[in-house]
Specification:
With about 650 residues, this protein is mostly helical. The chain folds into four domains: about 220 residues; about 120 residues, A middle domain of Talin 1 (Up-down Bundle), CATH 1.20.1420; about 190 residues, I/LWEQ domain (Up-down Bundle), CATH 1.20.1410.10; about 50 residues. The chain is about 85% helix and about 0% strand. It contains 15 helices and no strands. Helix 2 packs antiparallel against helix 3, helix 4 packs antiparallel against helix 7 and helix 9 runs parallel beside helix 12. The radius of gyration is 58 Å and the shape is rod-shaped. One of its GO terms (molecular function) is clathrin adaptor activity. This is Huntingtin interacting protein 1. It holds the Pfam family I_LWEQ. It is found in: Cytoplasmic vesicle membrane.
Length: about 650
């Protein structure tokens, strides 16, 4: 039995060997198909990613082209588009790195598959060894082999189907790869063109930046030239103001009223403060040329204050004795020249040492010394009575103003009752302006009282007001003198207005009286604010009231001039009926009359000068000055020039 079954066993073993060989081959084909399928699947994933990257790159390229066109249209977004191009380029590099990383991952997966393949081969080897050991179980082995064979056939069919599908997919992906390679070439060319356009835009950007830098330098230089021009023009305007004041100093006939030493001292104090402020502004300007507004304001203020000082000095000279008047005039001239020299130095862009105000301050010191010598030195009254006298004089001044206002109203009523036509119109205008002036003076007196009360309350401490007035006797005497002058001026102006309304007075006399009362109120303002706090609201009200008096005075002068013109127009001669000989005779008579009037005018001017000198001398004696003084103060001797 064993011998008979030996061929069958050998045949079965041979068949088993064939089946094992076929099984090994099928396993090999299966493994190869699995490897190919995995490789194709990896390539498919890679191609999908490449396609997605290509689509993203295409979209990015489209966006880049749109932004490049926008960059060409709008230069202002050039830098932003440049950043976007750089970002896109960085994204492409980042995506390339990601693709390289994915390839590395795929290679690692392939290594893992090879390792699994070796493990499977080892397992298959162990199975074969077990099959050899179990040859005695042939039936079971054959059944197992048949089953395995059937399974292998099924798997083979599946693998063959997979191979066919893989072949179709391979052809399809080969076509897509070729298409993508073509698109990649187009993208490379487009990127090259964009890089060229980017280089061109970068060149344009650099050129524009150079132009912008040049423009900024031009604008900076233009602003510097304009600031310098403003300073030069401001300096020229200031010089013109000072030169005009010096010209008026040479022509004292242009001064229509006399000034006071108190007012001149107040103006000199303001000039000193202005010079300090100007030096500070000049220092700031040298440190920062853009800060020129303060310097321009200081130059303009210095010019006007200098002009006021020169004019006030000239008007103060009209009430001064000859020797102090000459000294004060010369000091004002010298100060004007030094101020012009100081303004000339401002044009030079040097250091702060070039701008020196020592000469100006020296001239101001001389003016101050002379003005202090011209101040009233005392009244023939007891110091303990000064406080009562101030109140009495202020009350008397208010009463004089009220009386003058009542008289003007009475004159206006009489004029309306007895006059008509042009004369009534002229009288109403003149008396109305005089009434406004009296009202403005009344407001100024009230403001002066309030300021004096504030000064006394803030400065007396524990002392009484009378003791404060006695302690500050010179200031008190200045208030008394100014109050007397205001009351007297109001009375004189009303008398002059009465004569003008009646037709027996002169318009010029009324204008002179209005100027005189304006000067008296200015003296009262100067005396009131000597000890005042510059930030005091009462001082601001007093200054506002002073401006109101000046405006009312100008209105009186304007109404007087206008009324005089109207009256003269009604008295115009009729030359229509005169012959040539008569007209010639009248012309000769008019020329003779003009010469006579000019001669009389010259004599009257000389007489006016002598009267003012005599008035000053008498006022000085009445107010405590020493008569017959042979020598003047050191300040006066220093300021008076040597005469030929």
């Amino acid at each position: 039995m064993k011998t008979e079954s030996q061929p069958a066993v050998l045949q079965l073993k041979g068949h088993i060997s064939e089946l094992e060989a076929e099984l090994a081959e099928q396993r090999h084909l299966q493994q190869q198909a699995a490897d190919d399928s995995e490789f194709l699947r990896a390539e498919l994933d890679e191609l999908k990613k490449k396609r997605e990257d290509t689509e993203k790159a295409q979209r990015s390229l489209t966006e880049i082209e749109r932004k490049a066109q926008a960059n060409e249209q709008r230069y202002s977004k050039l830098k932003e588009k440049y950043s976007e191009l750089v970002q896109n380029h960085a994204d492409l590099l980042r995506k390339n790195a990601e693709i390289t990383k994915q390839v590395s991952v795929a290679r690692q997966a392939q290594v893992d598959l090879e390792r699994e393949k070796r493990e499977l081969e080892d397992s298959f080897q162990r199975i074969s060894e077990q099959a050899q050991r179990k040859t005695q179980e042939q039936t079971e082995v054959l059944e197992n082999l048949k089953q395995e064979l059937a399974t292998s056939k099924q798997e083979l069919q599946i693998v063959q189907g997979s191979l066919e599908t893989s072949a179709l997919a391979e052809a399809k992906w080969a076509t897509q790869i070729a298409k993508l390679e073509k698109e990649q070439g187009s993208l490379v060319n487009a990127i090259a063109r964009r890089e060229e356009e980017f280089s061109a835009l970068q060149g344009q950007l650099e050129s524009t930046q150079l132009k912008l830098s040049s423009t900024q330098e031009s604008v900076h230089q233009l602003a510097k030239d304009q600031r310098k021009m403003l300073l030069v023009e401001s300096r020229k305007a200031a010089e013109q103001v000072i030169q005009e004041a010096l010209r008026q100093l040479e022509e004292p006939t242009l001064i229509s009223c006399a000034g006071s030493a108190d007012h001149l001292l107040s103006t000199v104090k303001s000039v000193s403060s202005c010079i300090e402020q100007l030096e500070k502004c000049w220092s700031r300007y040298l440190a920062c040329p853009e800060d020129i507004s303060g310097l321009l304001r200081s130059v303009t203020l210095l010019a006007h204050l200098t002009s006021d000082t020169i004019v006030q000095g000239s008007t103060t000279c009209l009430r001064a004795p000859p020797e102090p008047a000459d000294a004060l005039t010369e000091a004002c001239k010298q100060y004007g020249k030094e101020a012009l020299m100081f303004l000339t130095l401002l044009e030079e862009e040097g250091t702060l040492e070039n701008v020196n105000s020592t000469a100006m301050r020296s001239c101001l010191s001389k003016i101050t010394a002379i003005s202090e010598e011209l101040l009233p030195r005392g009244l023939d009254i007891k110091q303990e009575e000064l406080g009562d006298l101030v109140d009495k004089e202020m009350a008397a001044t208010s009463a004089a103003i009220e009386t003058a206002t009542a008289r003007i109203e009475e004159m206006l009523s009489k004029s309306r009752a007895g006059d008509t036509g042009v004369k009534l119109e002229v009288n109403e205008r003149i008396l109305g302006s005089c009434t406004s002036l009296m009202q403005a003076i009344q407001v100024l007196i009230v403001a002066s009282k309030d300021l004096q009360r504030e000064i006394v309350e803030s400065g007396r401490g524990t002392t009484s007001p009378k003791e404060f007035y006695a302690k500050n006797s010179r200031w008190t005497e200045g208030l008394i003198s100014a109050s007397k002058a205001v009351g007297w001026g109001a009375t004189v102006m009303v008398d002059a207005a009465d004569l003008v309304v009646q037709g027996r007075g002169k318009f010029e006399e009324l204008m002179v009286c209005s100027h005189e009362i304006a000067a008296s109120t200015a003296q009262l303002v100067a005396a009131s604010k000597v000890k005042a706090n510059k930030d005091s609201p009462n001082l601001a009200q007093l200054q506002q009231a002073s401006r109101g008096v000046n405006q009312a005075t100008a209105a009186v002068v304007a109404s007087t001039i206008s009324g005089k013109s109207q009256i003269e127009e009604t008295d115009t001669m009729d030359f229509s009926s005169m012959t040539l000989t008569q007209i010639k005779r009248q012309e000769m008579d008019s020329q003779v009359r003009v010469l006579e009037l000019e001669n009389e005018l010259q004599k009257e001017r000389q007489k006016l000068g002598e009267l003012r000198k005599k008035h000053y001398e008498l006022a000085g004696v009445a107010e405590g000055w020493e008569e017959g003084t042979e020598t003047s103060s050191p300040a006066l001797q220093e300021a008076v020039p040597e005469k030929e």
